[in-house]
Known about the structure:
Elements: E1 3-13, H1 14-19, H2 25-30, E2 45-51, E3 54-62, H3 70-75, E4 80-88, E5 105-107, E6 110-117, H4 136-145, H5 154-168, E7 173-179, E8 184-188, E9 194-198, E10 201-205, E11 216-217, E12 222-227, E13 230-235
Antiparallel strand pairs: 1-4, 1-10, 2-3, 2-4, 5-6, 6-7, 7-8, 8-12, 9-10, 9-11, 12-13
The chain binds glutamine (GLN).
Residues 1-2, 38, 89-92, 95, 101, 114-117, 135-137 line the site of glutamine.
Amino acid sequence: xxxxxxxxxxxxxxxxxxxxxxxxxxxxxxxxxxxxxxxxxxxxxxxxxxxxxxxxxxxxxxxxxxxxxxxxxxxxxxxxxxxxxxxxxxxxxxxxxxxxxxxxxxxxxxxxxxxxxxxxxxxxxxxxxxxxxxxxxxxxxxxxxxxxxxxxxxxxxxxxxxxxxxxxxxxxxxxxxxxxxxxxxxxxxxxxxxxxxxxxxxxxxxxxxxxxxxxxxxxxxxxxxxxxxxxxxxxxxxxxxxxxxxxxxxxxxxxx
Length: 256
Ligand code: GLN
């Protein structure tokens, strides 16, 4: 399992979100506390952030362990953003090792990271040409991010698609963390996820980066939608049938 983290709210430096914190992502790359699958996350790392310069986010990815990246550690305190998303990777057996397989994956304004694994054969074939890599997480990202650009109900679409993929592959672990610069959309599906709501923004993380008592564990099978103003948690019911491919079925209308 990889680990991921994101912030939406008042500007924070990349160092604050990605590196700092006694149990932040940097430490989780070599000593995660709550990781059930894998031991270290040394197969690369990636970070993305949004700025007024353009609608699409900046993205910085590497196949090296995060703790070895002295150049990023030097630059990170100098770059701030209202929305930051980052991940460290522990590659699933058989998946590619190059940078294109490292999260976050991109589509337009959106970025997406995936903690987990999924049987790629349950994902719609239409997703493959858009995928940045044949890595399961990249194909999943291409599927989940399809058509989100400008969609008012983007969080609901992500939740429905994750639930449908989970129904098609009951062994899948589907913790995803996505963002478009204004909001974050995450799922807890087979792995841990925590949320921190503060006066100036919301953090989502596989593991809390410090011992702030406001961190809450997100229940499994839950969709989280966060903006600078707060976070909303919505249960994701298991879908009854097992389709051969991931067909979505609707979530309640209030999820948008
Ligand atoms: N399956 C993805 C990969 O191979 C994510 C792995 C993980 O969550 N450890 O990169």
